[in-house]
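Predict the assembly for these two chains.
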Amino acid sequence: DAGVTQSPTHLIKTRGQQVTLRCSPKSGHDTVSWYQQALGQGPQFIFQYYEEEERQRGNFPDRFSGHQFPNYSSELNVNALLLGDSALYLCASSLVPRQETQYFGPGTRLLVL
Amino acid sequence: GDSVTQMEGPVTLSEEAFLTINCTYTATGYPSLFWYVQYPGEGLQLLLKATKADDKGSNKGFEATYRKETTSFHLEKGSVQVSDSAVYFCALSGDAGGTSYGKLTFGQGTILTVHP
């Protein structure tokens, strides 16, 4: 049973650039949530996708956008990167949008120089 | 809004010592409560959960009881091992009738180091 997978594992970008991160949910799951984890902090909710639509959003600017595909995989896009966007980006999946238990992937570590 | 507060760390223990990591929360209604663990270089793994007051979640020797009256969900283990060294996060998912249901709110994490 495949768990949540994310790509790439690491990424280095410069300020002002754009980045796309990818996530495949756990087999059988249809909902994907994205979190940002700054160094030494707990994860912060970015948004959640279900049925190819954004269902919930945290306190993140609209530089952060996403997409969900018919196969339930998802992308996180960040435009106009800032130094402060350097973090571990975690994808979590669940079955139905508001199920409590979320399963996390290994994350993508983004460094903005 | 919802919030989770964990005891300040890091916590350093000898093998076989008793572990307590405190967690308190602020939320309306009856949130679900979770403990996640993060090993070095990895994502988060669900350790245990409790969905209603007085429920006890348990897994791998770890336990936590949902205390509505004290808004707490403290993590305990009777005898820690070196392999338990990791970062532990307390989290909540809002009440099923609220807007934060299905969205996890995390504490800042507690680093646990266990020495042989």
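Residues 36 and 44 of chain A are 5 Å apart (CA to CA). The radius of gyration of chain A is 13 Å.
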